[in-house]
Design a protein that fits this description.
five-stranded mixed β-sheet, 19% strand
Length: 725
């Protein structure tokens, strides 16, 4: 892998980390003291900074270092996330995303555009405000009060247990001198001498040190610094340094925030500062001695028994060690693959399917048994390859849904409404291409729901609703399709007002009546809007028709349900994949057509002379709308004496398609139609058959929607869609 490829990995990982950071920041608004979430934000910033340093991206390193320093103060309890800090870090994430995008484009970060440079400096200055020393009146008095009261060892201070060796004085070391040195970077709050080793006067040696002390020591220094004060007496003395309660909590947080690297227990404890190198060496020696005596002890037990580390810290370190091990085992089964390579693979699988169909047709023509058997095996293997390859393109919709947390937060603040976003079905998987192209339509629908759907707080309270409005995103599978729903609990749509606006614009006649569903469908007409005021978000009548057009381009459908005063639900139905499907091949004359197999309900034979009632066929007591494909596509060939009806169903709608012949199931590689077919809304693409001929893929959802849509008598006649009576 060359450096360009490594840089692309950094860019992709940074984008993922920034997305995770944004989601974590939005979670903090509900629980600003959630330590795990704060640590997740810190780790994201720390990883980006470290990775940027590998590529010499000093601008990103320096900027992220400031943000990381602020986050470190939050983790230490010196600062607390509030709305202002959350808003600032959301802007920090946006700015880092811009810098990463500049790296991706090959721009020089040392020469930023003026607007970007100004934003960079302003954000750095705002972050720096949180790094200024805390005012004495805010932080020091409480600590000073504790020290001056002289509370004992149980207070929130370091606990030093000192047993000086007998040769301490002979070696020229004075315990009082050590205590004076401690006072240079802290304060001895209380000290209790231990006299149990002092012999009777007759046996006392004036050059032997018998002293021991239990001490409470107040200091912001790290454990290694305190241990350094006793560097020259360690060898023959027993020195135990236990952290204050607050320091123990900090150790726990530091352990959780450690990077995901393979580390032994002692390394973890040293990295977080709760264990020094000298202490670790002592423990390892004690462990070796225990093994020599056939008394092996785990290092964690030794640390606790020797009072070097508190049990909760040991437990947290062991948990971190197991977490790293678990993550490593899961990571080994995952690799990062360029999306373009996946697309190429799917294209090749499609060509393989077409080639396999051609080989099977040739074998059938030749009638050679061994060749037929070989092509059958080939077809099964190709189908297995297809079923294995297609899931590689599938991604969960949850990451896309989660991006709207930020949209809802920002827009709600902009329009002065209290709105919460509810997400469900995030684990639902869609084709990667579908997810990429559905984001813009979803964004418009969510913003529209907030601007037009959700009422003001005053209006909601007056209507007996909660002050906080709710916008929901939901996804689920249904009959071989994916359904995405955008709903709100706002004021809903006024059908009469929509009708009045439609008549005013000449979309419907004065005497024409529409059902409620047909009325709501007018919302998707170009330029249609019922908004009384135009806002920065919506109300210009531009957008809903574009939303529908974008969804239609994905071979999807969109429908709307609304209850006045209660809310609106917009339902988008999309195909599971845009690449390869199981199809059902039919023919009319010399033309072949493919129907998505999951939408085929049944096939029935249509005897000659079968009568239809107003374009409907009575099937087992129910009236079924009938569509003659020959008339729909204006084919001039004569129908055979016996035709067939393929009954299709989708989203609760049914219809019968009259065809000449049924060719059976067929693996269909979907290829896009050219611009010349732009006016053929009933077609969703084409495919190549085994003999090299082309078959058109029917867009069944759109065809059923057209059948259900209101039509005038003239339109019925000119469209030639319904069966002849």
């Amino acid at each position: 892998m060359n450096m360009d490829e490594v840089l692309q990995v950094f860019i992709a990982e940074s984008q993922e980390l920034l997305q995770q950071m944004e989601e974590a920041l939005l979670q903090l608004e509900n629980d600003p003291d959630d330590a795990d979430t704060i640590n997740a934000i810190f780790r994201a910033a720390h990883t980006i900074k470290g990775s940027a340093g590998l590529f010499g991206l000093d601008v990103i390193v320096a900027f992220t270092h400031i943000a990381e320093s602020v986050l470190d103060r939050v983790r230490n309890g010196e600062l607390r996330f509030g709305k202002d800090m959350t808003a600032l870090f959301l802007q920090v994430g946006d700015h880092l995303a811009r810098l990463v995008a500049l790296v991706d484009s090959g721009a020089d970060l040392e020469i930023l555009e003026p607007d970007t440079q100004i934003a960079h400096q302003q954000l750095a200055e705002r972050l720096s405000h949180y790094l200024e020393p805390v005012q004495v009146s805010e932080s020091i008095p409480a600590a000073t009060t504790r020290i001056e009261r002289g509370q004992g060892v149980g207070a929130d201070h370091w606990h030093l247990s000192l047993r000086f060796g007998p040769d301490t004085l002979r070696n020229g070391m004075d315990p009082l001198g050590l205590f004076r040195y401690l006072n240079t970077f802290g304060k001895i709050v209380s000290i209790v001498p231990l006299l149990d080793r002092i012999p009777v006067a007759a046996e006392m040696d004036p050059e032997t040190c018998y002293l021991g002390f239990e001490m409470a020591f107040a200091s912001d220094a790290e454990k290694a610094t305190i241990e350094g004060a006793f560097e020259f007496v360690r060898e023959d003395s027993l020195i135990r340094i236990l952290p204050p309660n607050s320091k123990s909590e900090q150790y726990l947080e530091l352990i959780r925030a450690l990077p995901e690297e393979d580390m032994r227990l002692g390394e973890i404890l040293m990295r977080c500062g709760t264990l020094t190198a000298n202490e670790l060496q002592e423990v390892l020696q004690a462990q070796v001695q225990g093994q020599e005596r056939d008394e092996p002890r785990p290092i964690g037990r030794v640390l606790v028994e020797e009072s070097l580390v508190q049990p909760p810290v040991i437990a947290a370190a062991l948990q971190k060690q197991q977490q790293i091990k678990d993550n490593r085992s899961s990571e080994t089964s995952l690799i990062r693959v360029d999306a373009g390579k996946l697309d190429k693979l799917i294209d090749l699988v499609g060509e393989l399917i077409i080639a396999g169909a051609g080989a099977r047709m040739t074998a059938q023509t030749c009638g050679h048994p061994e060749m037929l058997e070989a092509t059958e095996l080939l077809s099964r293997l190709v189908e297995e390859v297809r079923d294995s390859a297609l899931p590689l393109r599938m991604v969960q919709i949850g990451s896309t849904f989660n991006r709207f947390q930020r949209v809802v937060r920002d827009v709600a603040g902009e329009i002065g409404k209290d709105i919460a976003l509810s997400i469900s079905g995030g684990e639902t998987e869609l084709d990667k291409t579908v997810v990429e192209r559905i984001t813009d339509p979803l964004t418009h629908l969510v913003r529209n729901a907030m601007d037009h759907g959700i009422e003001s707080v005053e209006t909601r309270l007056a209507r007996g609703k909660p002050a906080q409005g709710k916008v929901s995103l939901n996804a689920y599978h249904d009959a071989g399709s994916i359904v995405l729903e955008v709903s709100d609990d706002g004021g809903g749509l006024d059908a009469q007002r929509i009708l009045a606006k439609a008549r005013e614009r000449g979309l419907i006649g004065d005497g024409q009546t529409l059902s409620e569903k047909e009325t709501f469908a007018l919302i998707f007409e170009p330029g249609f809007s019922t908004a009384e005021q135009v806002s920065n978000l919506s109300g210009r009548g531009v957008g809903m028709d574009v939303v529908k057009r974008n969804i239609t381009a994905l071979r999807g459908t969109i429908e709307l349900d609304s209850t006045l005063g209660q809310g609106t639900r917009i339902r988008i139905r999309l195909p599971l994949t845009l690449a390869i499907i199981d199809g059902f091949l039919v023919s009319v004359g010399q033309a072949g057509y493919v129907i998505p197999l999951e939408m085929v309900e049944e096939c029935i034979e249509l005897p000659a002379g079968t009568a239809f009632k107003r374009g409907h066929l009575e099937l087992r007591g129910q009236m079924l709308p009938i569509v003659r494909l020959r008339d729909l596509f204006e084919q001039e060939s004569q129908p055979p004496r016996r035709e067939s009806v393929v009954v299709v169903r989708q989203a609760g709608l049914r219809a019968g398609l009259v065809v000449d012949q049924l060719a059976g199931e067929f693996q269909t590689v979907i290829k896009p139609l050219g611009k010349i077919f732009a006016g053929c809304s009933e077609l969703g693409g084409f495919t190549i058959l085994g003999d090299g001929s082309v078959a058109l893929i029917l867009d069944i959802p759109r065809l059923l929607s057209q059948l259900a849509a209101p039509r005038s008598a003239a339109q019925h006649e000119s469209a030639q869609v319904y069966a002849h009576e």
